[in-house]
Design brief:
69% of the residues lie in helices and 6% in strands. The chain is mainly alpha-helical and 106 residues long. α1 crosses α3.
């Protein structure tokens, strides 16, 4: 876990983090951890900082990483749509079963 963070001088009053720390924080986000959980675990000031690091890292990675990120968002949207459809079908099927008096084992 990325525990190394370097605090800047008292002049700016802002914390500075190592490149490795930022990369690990972004990787946790990409691995599916929620942004609030990542900032809490690593002691980052807020989610905006984490999302900025993510954007910077994807920009440095080039078009392949950006297209992968877009594809992931597209697939997540499709998954939510299919889950909604499944719920509707389950409700319809449940109503048909009740109409016919059929007992289903769950």
């Amino acid at each position: 876990m990325a525990r190394k963070k370097k605090l800047s001088t008292a002049k700016t009053g802002r914390r500075e983090y190592t490149k490795e720390f930022k990369e690990e924080a972004v990787q946790m986000l990409l691995d599916g951890h929620s942004a609030p959980s990542v900032i809490e675990r690593l002691g980052i000031s807020n989610t905006n900082v984490l999302y900025r690091w993510k954007k910077e890292q994807l920009d440095r990675s080039g078009p392949v990483a950006s297209s992968l990120e877009a594809r992931v968002k597209e697939l997540e949207h499709e998954l939510r749509r299919v889950e909604r459809e499944r719920e509707v079908l389950k409700k319809v099927a449940s109503g048909k079963v009740q109409e016919r008096g059929i007992v289903m084992n769950s």
